[in-house]
Structure formats: C-alpha cells, structure tokens
C-alpha cells in the first residue's frame, strides 16, 4: 500500500491553503464507498494520521457531492464545474467529486497492530476471516446502510431411495446424534460457491465413508418415517411428505438452471419448478 498526497482545502481561519499530507490508497467500490487494503507494515501513529487525512477528504467529497445534488435539483449546478482541457467535467482541485459513504479497511492478520487505531477513529468490526479482519466506517450522519455480514449457512439433506422403496440412512459417530440410535438422512452444509445439488452428492459420499458415520444401511421408507424422532419434529414430517410426493411423481421440486449474470463472473444458478414453467 503506497501513499498519495493531497492538499487541505482551508485552514483554521477558513482561508484556502495548500498543504501536502499522506493519504491511504483506496479503490472505489460500486456502491459509493472506498476499500483500503493494507499491504505493507505501518506504524500506528503514521497510520492514524493517514487515516484521519483520508477520512477528511472523503467527507469533504461527500459534502461537496451533497451540495451539488441539492444544486442540481434547484437548477443551480451550472458554473460549479470547470471544464478541463480534455473536455471532461472536473471540480476545483481536479479531484474525484463523487461522495464517499462507506469506508472499508481490510487488515491482514500480520497488520493487527492497526486494529486499535482504526477503532479509535470510529471504525467497527464487520467480519473476520482466518487471515484478515474487515472494519468499516460510515461518513454521512444518521443510520448507516452497510450490509450486515453473512451470518447464515445453507444446510442440505440427501434423500436417496432405491428400487425397493428403501432410503439411505446413517447413524453419526459425532455431533448431537452420536449414541442416540437415530437413523437419519445424510446431511451437511453447502460450501461457499458450491452448487446445492453437488453439495448433496458430496455429503452422501462423505457420510457413507467409514470415518464419518457409525453405520449406514437401506431402510424401508415407512420404517424411517415412523421413528419417534421423525414424528416429533414438524420439519422432518414435512420432509417425509415432500420426499414421498416426489417419489410418486406428485411433486416436481426445484431444479438448478445455470444462468449468466452481469453482476458476477461466478457460476449462477436459479432454482425453480422447471416442469410447470415448461407446461409439462
């Protein structure tokens, strides 16, 4: 992370002055904010001064952009811009006039000495991964609109039935079901970026491996459904009804349809009832 320089707009008397100071390098995100990723060691005092200067500039941009927006709606923006020799609209200092709202700082674990200075400047924790901490800050007054950290996981269960109308069930040797005698469908959690159907196949393979379970077998569907554990929980009773309807052809369920999106280069899937959509 290198540092850039800029000039303060005014002094304590409100007079315009030019004074160089170091700014944190940042990239614009698509939502009117900036992202700072610290990649080189910094002393806490230097980081604090750079952070304060950067926030001051981003706040100035926000205030200027707000003023321009108000002027636009009142028909008074003409004349607030200059025209550069290249013909593009620019502001007085030639800088970015887009208002910055959210500020994100990504701190790798090796730069953890900068967490405390950032918090003291008003940043708060957003989320953490094994090798970095993400902090955030909101420039406008009022309640922020930054998205919350992802806090949910997608769980899956695999309904596998053979031609004898028997379902694949397992007894786990770890977790809450260890030693309970409960026979259950293979279940697990979808990994990040993993297709739901691929996750179901993976979990079946993992949970039927000798190291993952106490036992596995084929069990008549009715025997599985009559277990007190299944009958006790409404969710599992719904799953039994859905699986049985699926087997008998009375329920089509959702199918993954691969799609493209301009929002992301990652694989995208829509899950919907393709049979009804196609009029079958």
From TrEMBL:
<dbReference type="Pfam" id="PF18290">
    <property type="entry name" value="Nudix_hydro"/>
</dbReference>
<dbReference type="InterPro" id="IPR015797">
    <property type="entry name" value="NUDIX_hydrolase-like_dom_sf"/>
</dbReference>
<keyword id="KW-0378">Hydrolase</keyword>
<feature type="domain" description="Nudix hydrolase">
    <location>
        <begin position="151"/>
        <end position="280"/>
    </location>
</feature>
<dbReference type="Pfam" id="PF00293">
    <property type="entry name" value="NUDIX"/>
</dbReference>
<comment type="similarity">
    <text>Belongs to the Nudix hydrolase family.</text>
</comment>
<dbReference type="GO" id="GO:0051287">
    <property type="term" value="F:NAD binding"/>
</dbReference>
<dbReference type="InterPro" id="IPR003293">
    <property type="entry name" value="Nudix_hydrolase6-like"/>
</dbReference>
<dbReference type="InterPro" id="IPR000086">
    <property type="entry name" value="NUDIX_hydrolase_dom"/>
</dbReference>
<dbReference type="GO" id="GO:0047631">
    <property type="term" value="F:ADP-ribose diphosphatase activity"/>
</dbReference>
<dbReference type="InterPro" id="IPR040618">
    <property type="entry name" value="Pre-Nudix"/>
</dbReference>
<protein>
    <submittedName>
        <fullName>Histone acetyltransferase complex component-like protein</fullName>
    </submittedName>
</protein>
<dbReference type="GO" id="GO:0016740">
    <property type="term" value="F:transferase activity"/>
</dbReference>
<dbReference type="GO" id="GO:0035529">
    <property type="term" value="F:NADH pyrophosphatase activity"/>
</dbReference>
């Amino acid at each position: 992370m290198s540092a850039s320089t800029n000039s303060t707009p005014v002094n304590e008397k409100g007079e315009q002055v030019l004074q160089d100071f170091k700014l944190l390098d940042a990239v614009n995100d698509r939502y009117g904010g900036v992202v700072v990723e610290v990649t080189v060691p910094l002393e806490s005092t230097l980081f604090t001064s750079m952070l304060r200067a950067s926030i001051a500039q981003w706040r100035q941009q926000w205030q200027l952009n707000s003023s321009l927006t108000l002027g636009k709606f009142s028909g008074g923006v003409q004349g607030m811009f200059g025209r550069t020799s290249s013909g593009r609209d620019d502001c007085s200092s030639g800088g970015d006039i887009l208002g910055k709202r959210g500020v994100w700082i990504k701190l790798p674990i090796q730069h953890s000495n900068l967490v405390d200075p950032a918090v003291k400047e008003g940043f708060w924790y957003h989320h953490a991964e094994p090798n970095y901490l993400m902090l955030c800050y909101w420039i406008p007054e009022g309640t922020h609109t930054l998205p919350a950290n992802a806090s949910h996981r997608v769980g899956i269960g695999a309904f596998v039935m053979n031609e004898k109308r028997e379902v694949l069930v397992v007894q786990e040797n770890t977790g809450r079901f260890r030693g309970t005698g409960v026979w259950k469908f293979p279940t697990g959690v979808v990994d990040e970026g993993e297709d739901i159907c691929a996750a179901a196949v993976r979990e079946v393979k993992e949970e039927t491996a000798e190291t993952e379970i106490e036992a596995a077998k084929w069990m008549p569907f009715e025997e599985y459904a009559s277990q007190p554990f299944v009958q006790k929980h409404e969710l599992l009773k719904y799953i039994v009804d859905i699986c049985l309807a699926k087997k008998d052809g009375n329920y089509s369920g959702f199918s993954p349809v691969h799609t493209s999106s301009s929002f992301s280069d990652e694989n995208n899937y829509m899950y919907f009832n393709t049979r009804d959509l196609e009029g079958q």
